[in-house]
């Protein structure tokens, strides 16, 4: 089955700096890669997703890149703000339609 | 914006008892999921449900677990003979269509504590 690895497990950045979180996946049939933000006491909230026919997608300060050949995808947050502090999860799905999640990254934005 | 709602937010149960976790998916969604997150670990897939039957399930989803859509709005997860290791956050998710590239929307979860 699919296996998703996520790095780093914790990330601290200064407010205004950029943050990058990276994930790799194992199943070449996976074709959908969402990113979720989880705040304390809440469920995962979809923030951006990318499909395998696209190499990059951007939504304001958030962007995701996908390298199908290398089987990795990354989340980029620019101009970070304290409210960006949360746990971020990458995930993948494809032939098996359920999501396989990475282990999460605790992002802390320092004021 | 429509959302997935889960009740209760926290359930405390004695080991060996049965629990039912409830979810109300987004109203025009047709595909429903349960996931589990043990403290400090990954979110893990349990089961998917479509057209009143299980479409996929993981190794975790054994005979102890069952799911049901008892009416047009609720989707439930029943855990029989609970064990200490069933303590976790349980998340319900739903999506509108069945493609593997369609977004799933999650509820805020039920924290299950087995004593």
Q: Can I get a quick summary?
A:
The complex is a heterodimer of chains A (111) and B (115). Chain A has 111 residues and is mainly beta.
Give a written overview of the molecule.
The complex is a heterodimer of chains A (111) and B (115). Chain A contains no helices and 11 strands. With 111 residues, chain A is mostly beta strands. In chain A, the strands form 2 sheets. In chain A, strands 2, 4, 5, 9, 10 and 11 form a 6-stranded mixed sheet that branches. Chain A has a 5-stranded antiparallel sheet with strand order 1-3-8-7-6, with no helix packed on it. Chain A is globular and about 40 Å long. Chain B has 115 residues and is mainly beta. Chain B contains no helices and 11 strands. Chain B has strands at 5-7, 10-13, 19-24, 31-37, 43-50, 53-57, 65-68, 75-79, 88-95, 105-106, 110-114. In chain B, strand 5 (43-50) and strand 6 form a beta hairpin. Chain B is globular. The A-B interface holds A 31-32, 34, 36, 41-46, 49, 51-52, 89, 91, 93-104 and B 4, 6, 33, 35, 41-45, 48, 55-56, 58, 91, 98-109.
């Amino acid at each position: 089955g699919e296996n998703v690895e996520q790095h780093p497990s914790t990330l601290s950045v200064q407010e205004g700096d950029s943050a990058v979180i990276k994930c790799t996946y194992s199943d070449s049939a996976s074709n959908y890669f969402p990113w979720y933000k989880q705040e304390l006491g809440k469920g995962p909230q979809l923030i951006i997703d990318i499909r395998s026919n696209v190499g990059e997608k951007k939504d304001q300060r958030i962007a995701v890149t996908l390298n199908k050949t290398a089987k990795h995808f990354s989340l980029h947050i620019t101009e970070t703000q304290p409210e960006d502090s949360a746990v971020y999860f990458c995930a993948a799905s494809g032939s098996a339609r359920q999501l396989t999640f990475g282990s999460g990254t605790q992002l802390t934005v320092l004021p | 914006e429509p959302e997935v709602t889960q009740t209760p937010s926290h359930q405390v149960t004695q080991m060996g008892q049965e629990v039912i976790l409830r979810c109300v998916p987004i109203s025009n969604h047709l595909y429903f999921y349960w996931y589990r997150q043990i403290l400090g670990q990954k979110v893990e897939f349990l089961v998917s449900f479509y057209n009143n039957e299980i479409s996929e399930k993981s190794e975790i989803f054994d005979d102890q677990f069952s799911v049901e859509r008892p009416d047009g709005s609720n989707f439930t997860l029943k855990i029989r003979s609970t064990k200490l290791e069933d303590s976790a956050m349980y998340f319900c998710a739903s999506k509108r269509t069945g493609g593997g590239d369609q977004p799933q929307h999650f509820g805020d979860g039920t924290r299950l504590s087995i004593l």
